[in-house]
Design a protein that fits this description.
This protein is mostly helical. It contains 6 helices and 3 strands. Helix content is about 75%, strand content about 5%. A hairpin with a 5-residue loop joins β1 and β2 (about 280-285).
Amino acid sequence: MRPNFQMALGCSVLLHLGVVVVLFAGSFISPKKPEQKPLSMTMSALPKDKPIIKAAMVNSADVERQIDKLKQQKIDAKREQQRRADKLRNERRKIQELEKLRKKRQQEKLAADRAAKRAKEQAAKEAKLAQQKIEQAKAKQKDEAEKALKAQQERQKQEKAAAEAKAKRLADEKAAAEAKAKRLADEKAAKEKADKIRKEKLRKAKEAKERAAQEALMAEQMAEEQAEVNRARDRRVLSEVEKYTVLISSAIQRHWNVDESMRGKQCVLNIKLGRSGIAYSVKAVSGDKFVCKSAEDAVYKVNNFPVSKDPAVFARLKEINLTVQPEFD
């Protein structure tokens, strides 16, 4: 673009210089006609060794046309220069706009990359937290299993100690009974030896009969007392069983998702509980299938049911048939 402009400008300058030269040369030419002299005189007056200079007449209209042409070329060159400058500005503006667009897209890409990076980091963080929760749950489950094992071992130890204590007590009671029997036998032998008469025998028989009657009465009284103790214990155990049955039902109700379609329906569940209160078996015995399935899910949602530490109470709670019915506020 620039070499063509420079070439046009150079041509314009040369043309202007040519016009100036022509005008300057024309100022020395007289517009008057030269005097008519005889050809012979004119020719003889000229030096023989000098060349003849021919002067050309310049047409002013042609000069004006040349000047107008040069002016027009200058105007055209200026317009061309302006057009090229405008085109250059337009191209620069387009380049700037393209550069702005490129930078904008680059910034958008950087923003998208940063967002993707943040999302990836967030996902990694959440995955790490989830893994930590899983590990914590495993650790908790392991700890509960270890606690359950220790509790079982302690219970077995206590049961063994109780069995040993019972065996020792029975052995002591047997030894005491044997000692007592020997003592009674010795006393009886001494009495029989000291008093062999029939009266003494009758008296001893009467005393023995009375003693037997007294022992029978005492045994009957003791049996009655023991029966009352057993009845009281059974009432207490039954009361505890009823209490824990209500607690178990309440725990199921808290974890039971119910809807209006269950209203007025019920289910009988057979539930087996461990010593820690964990339900390891749940079966529907009877009732609406949908209600039973929902109730089973509620049982398994309960981590630990409340259970009694009393062996007699737990013996009745470790496997129960429980009738459940959805409750509505």
